[in-house]
Amino acid sequence: MNGTTKGKLWIVSTPIGNLEDITVRALRILKEVPFILAEDTRRTSNLLKKLGIENKKLISFNVQNQNRRLHQVLSLLNTGNDMALVSDAGTPVISDPGNKLILECQKLKIDIDIAPGPSAVTSAVALSGFPGTHFVFLGFLPRGKNRRRLFRKISKGLYGEALIVFFESALRLKESLREWLEIVEDRECFIARELTKIHQELIRGYISEILESFPEQLKGEITVVVSGNASKSAEIR
Questions:
Q1: Residue 87: CB partners within 8 Å, gap ≥ 6?
Q2: DSSP assignment of 131-181, as one string?
Q3: 228 in Cβ contact with 189 (< 8 Å)
Q4: Among residues 88, 73, 81, 154, which one has the least CA distance to residue 120?
Q5: pTM score > 0.85 for this model?
Q6: Angle between helix 144-155 and helix 173-183 axes, rounded to 10 deg
Q7: Residues 124, 52: contact at Cβ < 8 Å?
Q8: DSSP labels for 81-109?
Q9: What does the CA dihedral 135, 126, 195, 137 come to, rounded to 10 degrees?
Q10: Closest C-alpha among 177, 188, 185, 184 to residue 130
Q11: What integer pLDDT is reported at residue 236 of this predicted model?
């Protein structure tokens, strides 16, 4: 720590399931920084133990508390403390908190860098077999009326030929696919469940086919890739 030199914020990707996916660079940074900003300190503490990393000061930094913690984190960075930002799994900020902190660091001229690595989004696109040149990531789908409103826009040509990638909970996936089929159309779809984990499951087919054989109970983290629509314009009125 140096009281006159500002610290550095590292955006560090962590495994989405398989521990072996941690990068050499990420390991080095997590060992070197004195502070780690964690979406869930318990999960990150467990990860660090598995990686053999000890004596780290973990600071909870998530959607619920990021505004309250922002001043504390910026103060630590301003007084010379390096730190790493991690999410529960994958690359931080992608459908996770962190962008406000990064914007403030940019304003304060605090150095920011990234140790890139695993991402459920790009992993699912690569595994899907669809062309990965043009895709749109929606994060977690909205619920209820907002989801139906989104699907109506897609049915009118929103996103055009681009693949549509989103996260969905196992409990809501069947309902979301049914609504898609009802409002949009039957498209080819790829579902990746528990990516890189022991019970990884990959399903591809038309949405109607997937719904016909949908399991009674579905568990785990799910990423969905839906083919684009080449027949409709992306212009929305």
A1: 14, 39, 93, 94, 96, 97, 98
A2: --SSEEEEEEPP-HHHHHHHHHHHHTTTTTTSEEEEEEETTTHHHHHHHHH
A3: no
A4: 88
A5: yes
A6: 40
A7: no
A8: --EEEE-SSBSTTTTSS-HHHHHHHHHTT
A9: -10
A10: 188
A11: 40
pLDDT band at 3 (very low <50, low <70, confident <90, very high): very low
- 133-154 pLDDT per residue, tens: 999 999 999 999 999 999 999 9
The two tokens of residue 116 are 């890139």
Residue 157 scores a pLDDT above 50 = yes
Match 């860098």 to its residue by tokens.
113
Q: Which run of H or of E encompasses 124? A: helix 120-128
Task: Report which residue type is found at 92.
Answer: P
